[in-house]
Amino acid sequence: MSKFVECIFFALIVIAVEAIRNNGELAEISEFPFQVSLRINGGHSCGGVLITRKHVLTAAHCVNDYIDPAEQNLWSASIELGATHLNAGLRYPISRISIHKDFKNEYKPMFLPNDVAVVHLRHSVKLSPTIQTIALPRMMTEVPMNTSLIVSGYGLINHTAYLPWDSPLRKFETKVAGCEAINTTTLWNVFCDELRVGYAACNGDSGSGIIDANTKTLVGIVSGIGDECGAGIEPDVFLKVSYYIPYIKSELAYDPENSKIQSERPARNVEEIFYINDCYSPGCAYKSKD
Ligand SMILES: *[C@@H]1O[C@H](CO)[C@@H](O)[C@H](O)[C@H]1NC(C)=O
Ligand SMILES: *[C@@H]1O[C@H](CO)[C@@H](O)[C@H](O)[C@H]1NC(C)=O
Ligand SMILES: *[C@@H]1O[C@H](CO)[C@@H](O)[C@H](O)[C@H]1NC(C)=O
């Protein structure tokens, strides 16, 4: 290649990267085998993280609207996993949704306090090279400034796009940075990413996992998405998972035969809502028995 062609080539690449928001890079599901697509009423609504063969961690704001049976707005709740593109993976129905009791659906200031939920599956998922659980972090482990992070998700590539039926999994690398762009004083249980145009989460990425790029351990889930998705106005806000271990553990211990815990927090058992089953894909796992 001549020097001249090389230069043009380089310039084009730089322009392309600058112009794309939340494009990051395409990812393979085998890099993030814990990545889940949460499906409410038949379509992808949020991401999630497979923490046991029967439990998924996600953001409370993803399921908060469906907790009240009186609303009658939930007719199908499932997860999909194991595929690099949406609508190509295995589906498993959800049996229970629980959200943190101190979750507040307040968008001002920008982030939502205690934005964490645990979703229970009716059947244990079958593990494979593309379907794996990820361990919870140790209780109260800090996520220091400048920690390198990898964020993955099936969400939009920019704030005006529509989610394609077969939206691919994408990833981007970032670092823990200050949350100064957000007006709040209660930031102990969240962390933010760098303001870097084009590298950010977007709609549909909420609930997805954030891993430490060096240790590959789970550190956060996507909670708040910056204005206009990666426009460099606001950072993304991630829930610090290590600060929610007691809630998560108590939810993992939930026993339907002994449902005292049920009354202690907003939760809904959703076995009964399956009058539309979301299980028409070729890889449907609806009937799988453990
Ligand atoms: C984070 O990185 C920046 C830029 O390299 C540096 O100025 C700052 O001191 C670092 N902060 C910490 C807490 O390591
Ligand atoms: C957003 O993505 C859509 C779909 O790819 C594209 O047509 C549109 O130009 C993008 N908009 C911006 C502001 O980048
Ligand atoms: C934060 O507060 C300042 C001063 O009250 C205000 O000017 C600014 O617009 C606020 N920013 C956000 C993101 O709400």
Automatic annotation (TrEMBL):
Keyword Disulfide bond: yes
Pfam families in the cross-refs: Trypsin (PF00089)
Lineage: superkingdom: Eukaryota
Keyword line: Disulfide bond, Hydrolase, Protease, Serine protease, Signal
GO molecular function, one term: serine-type peptidase activity
TM region positions: none
CDD domains linked: Tryp_SPc (cd00190)
Positions of the Peptidase S1 domain: 21-253
Signal peptide location: 1-19
GO biological process: proteolysis
Keyword Protease (UniProt): yes
InterPro entries according to UniProt: Peptidase_S1 (IPR050430), Peptidase_S1_PA (IPR009003), Peptidase_S1_PA_chymotrypsin (IPR043504), Peptidase_S1A (IPR001314), Trypsin_dom (IPR001254), TRYPSIN_HIS (IPR018114)
Family: Belongs to the peptidase S1 family.
PANTHER family in UniProt: PEPTIDASE S1 DOMAIN-CONTAINING PROTEIN, POLYSERASE-RELATED
Protein name (Swiss-Prot/TrEMBL): Peptidase S1 domain-containing protein
Species name: Trichogramma kaykai
